[in-house]
Specification:
Helices cover about 45% and strands about 10% of the residues. The protein is α/β, with parallel strands linked by helices and about 240 residues long. Strand 3, helix 4 and strand 4 form a beta-alpha-beta unit.
């Protein structure tokens, strides 16, 4: 691309532990940037070593943070996706994920966080079987699957996940990260439509909750989810 002067803006996905000497090192990252790469997307998933091992991710929290540092050094935006609410995941595991998100966003405003979204059970996986054992009621035929997919928001609602003990925590966390972990300016720039003073009030509450790591009784989240923009989800990511 560089030799042919085809330096168009582009992005791709990559594993966090590939950004190291001998693989995607500083020279490689510099070439990526020169070729037009402006963003690298990573599936971080969790900050808990136990959960990362459970899902066979084969990366560590430190490797995730190091990948962000290397991207930022070369002017490439690092983007990380997370999930919570996995079968067997504890509140302590989830808090480790929030701690890792905190480490990442403190590096730079350029760091992008997607989620953490609720884990979704998909047929054919080991975790899916664990969900069934926990009491998950799965469709039993193709026609039932078709109906479930057509009504995906209800089928995949947190309230229907018997393995999730902290349902309010899991459901609200994407909003608290989106509006609390980032700067007020960034949060206010969200595409969620609402009256400015109401949006600011919600953002400030999220900022306070994030600073204190106090997420019980998410009343403002439930109100926002119900009333903002005629039902548009407040946890919408950029």
């Amino acid at each position: 691309m560089i030799e042919l002067n085809l330096t168009i803006p582009w992005e791709t996905t990559v594993r966090a532990n590939y950004l190291k000497e001998g693989m995607i090192d500083d020279a490689f990252l510099a070439a990526l940037k020169k070729s037009g790469c402006y963003l690298l997307s990573f599936g971080a998933e969790s900050g808990s070593p136990r959960i990362l091992k459970k899902i066979q991710k084969d990366i560590t929290a430190d490797e995730i943070v190091e990948s962000a540092r290397r991207c930022l050094k070369h002017g490439i935006i690092p983007q990380y996706s997370f999930m919570i609410g996995l079968p067997g995941e504890t509140k302590a595991d989830m808090m480790m994920t929030l701690k890792l998100i905190d480490r990442l966003v403190k590096l730079s405003e350029q760091v992008q966080i997607l989620g953490p979204q609720a884990f979704r059970p998909y047929s054919g996986s080991v975790l899916y079987e664990e969900c069934l054992q926990a009491g998950w009621k799965a469709p039993s035929s193709l026609s039932e699957w078709s109906q479930a997919v057509g009504n995906e928001l209800n089928y995949l609602a947190i309230k229907n996940f018997p393995w999730v003990a902290n349902k309010d925590f899991v459901e609200s966390m994407e909003a608290y990260v989106r509006f609390g972990a980032h700067s007020v300016k960034s949060a206010m720039g969200s595409s969620v439509k609402a009256q400015r003073f109401l949006k600011l009030g919600f953002v400030l509450l999220c900022q306070l909750r994030w600073k204190l790591k106090f997420f019980v009784w998410p009343i403002e989240f439930k109100l926002a989810k119900k009333f903002v923009a005629g039902g548009v989800k407040i946890m919408e990511t950029r």
